[in-house]
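Q&A log
Question type: sequence-to-structure
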Amino acid sequence: MNAAQSVAGRRRLSQAELDMIVTAHEKFVTGKQGGKRASLRFMQLSGLDLSFRNLTDADLSASILEGCRMVRTKLDRASLFGCDLRKSDMRQASLVRADLRGACLRGANLAQADLTQADFREGQIAIPHPRKGLDTLRHETRQGEVDEVNFSGATLDGSQFEGVSAFKADFSDCSLRGAKLAGANLKEANLVGAILDGADVKGANLEGANLTGAVMAGVDTSTARVSGAHMTGALRASTPEAVSKAQSLYKMCLDNQLWCQTGGKEGACARLDGEDLRPLGDRLKGLRLTAMTAKGACMVGLDLSGAQLQGANLAGADLRAANLRGADLRGAKLTGANLTKADLRQAFLSPLPLGPTRQTEVSLQGARVRYAMMQAADLSEAVLDGADLRGSDFTGARVAKASFRDVELSSVQGLEF
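Response status: OK
Response body:
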């Protein structure tokens, strides 16, 4: 199908016309007077700008959106069935449960987009007749295509990629928990640091894929094609030994809490260096773990929300996708820790007073804090020298007197120097 045929029968909208339709849709979504749901089926919209607009539940089926700008556009539950989205800019867009069946996204940028439960599978596409347009349609089954798409830092939990072609796609630092990737072509894809817990890769082509440091708990690669795949440092499920140790480690944490409650008279500081704490799940939530040490511990996905971790030593710990929302980390040592996609919203990372004239600052030196949620966190006087902060959101965070020497700041939000 050539370019002339692909636009046949599709009405070309101007930016002004599109803006009017979207404004009416936004009123519809928010229940305001004069609202009307956007029906943008079979439209020619290539090159137009939909950034920051709300198109929740809109119907854009079979439209051409090639090269469109849709930065932070809200497209939750929208129908993008059979759309041409090649080279579109959809960074940080929200596409929760969006219908992308049969869509072509080759070369699109979906970095940090939220694609939770989005559907990329094949779909039957209606092709307009080159001369008669929409009066005569033929139907063609097309597989979803996301070849060379940039999904870095995106959330794709529970998404459906069965049979999809994702050749050379960039899924680095993505969350793909429970994603359906059976039969997908992931040849030479970049899955470095991706969180694939419970993903289904039956019959998938992972030849030459880079899975270095990926989290692969519950991922069965026995029927996948993995020749030439790189899996150095990939994190598998907790060993039976780690699972059997969980209760004794939890007891140590409870002893730490008792030590805090009794001013050091009973209990003791927990020493969990190098331990796999994943089997503890959400049992550490809200606990008093002041001064505990968990250097180099595996804490991927742990729920530590509201935990008291003042002065804790978490140097080199793997805290990817951990929930530290509202946690008290004053004076904590997080040097070299991996906090990629961690939730640190409203966390306290300011100095810990040790006396009238002494205090300990939080150290995040050399830490990986990629795509982390740092909104409204208190980072006053924190030391972040040499940290990788790519794609993190510091909106509303307090950073007075914090040190940011030699940090990687590309795509960071909410920081102004």
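Response note: Helices lie at 3-6, 15-29, 240-261.
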